[in-house]
């Protein structure tokens, strides 16, 4: 409601109350029943209620629910293409005729087996046992 309408309604309510109070005084004589005063009071009360309702703060009205479609559960990923592949592993040719305890044998066994023990010449295999490193 606009500000002008609120002020107009409020001033009409105040004027109605003022008229209802002054009507019996202007009549100059008393009646046993003041019907006009009662009617004016009821009209003033109704105008006051209307003015109070118009000036009241607006109330929150919850909006209607909005349906939002959910995305599908499974979304297939787009294929990934690789332009650059790593270089192919080089084959290293080892002379398997290495003598045990030689420097080449030590180098070969320590490169080949992670668990190589140079003191005993053994490594721990996948079976959990120690095996002697043979290069041939």
Automatic annotation (TrEMBL):
Q: How does it sit in the membrane?
A: Single-pass membrane protein
Q: Report the Pfam families cross-referenced here.
A: BA14K
**Where is the signal peptide, in residue numbers?**
1-27
- Localization (cell): Membrane
GO molecular-function term, one example from the UniProt record: carbohydrate binding
Stored InterPro entries:
BA14K
Q: Phosphoprotein as a keyword?
A: no
Domain of life, source organism:
Bacteria
Where are the bilayer-spanning segments? 37-56
Supply the alphabetized keyword list: Cell membrane, Lectin, Membrane, Signal, Transmembrane, Transmembrane helix
- Could you give one GO CC term from the UniProt record? membrane
Q: Which family does it belong to?
A: Belongs to the BA14k family.
Purpose of the protein: Has immunoglobulin-binding and hemagglutination properties, and can bind to mannose. Essential for virulence. May be involved in LPS biosynthesis or polysaccharide transport.
**By what name is this protein known?**
Lectin-like protein BA14k
């Amino acid at each position: 409601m606009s500000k002008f309408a609120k002020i107009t309604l409020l001033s009409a309510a105040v004027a109605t109350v003022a008229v209802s109070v002054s009507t019996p005084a202007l009549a100059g004589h008393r009646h046993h029943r003041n019907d006009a005063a009662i009617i004016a009071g009821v009209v003033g009360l109704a105008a006051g209620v209307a003015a109070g309702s118009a000036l009241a703060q607006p109330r929150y009205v919850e909006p209607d629910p909005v349906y939002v479609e959910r995305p599908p559960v499974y979304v297939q990923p787009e294929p990934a293409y690789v332009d650059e592949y790593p270089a192919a592993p080089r084959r290293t040719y080892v002379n398997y005729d290495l003598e045990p305890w030689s420097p080449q044998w030590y180098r070969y066994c320590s490169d080949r087996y992670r668990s190589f023990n140079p003191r005993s010449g053994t490594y721990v295999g996948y079976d959990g046992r120690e095996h002697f490193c043979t290069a041939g």
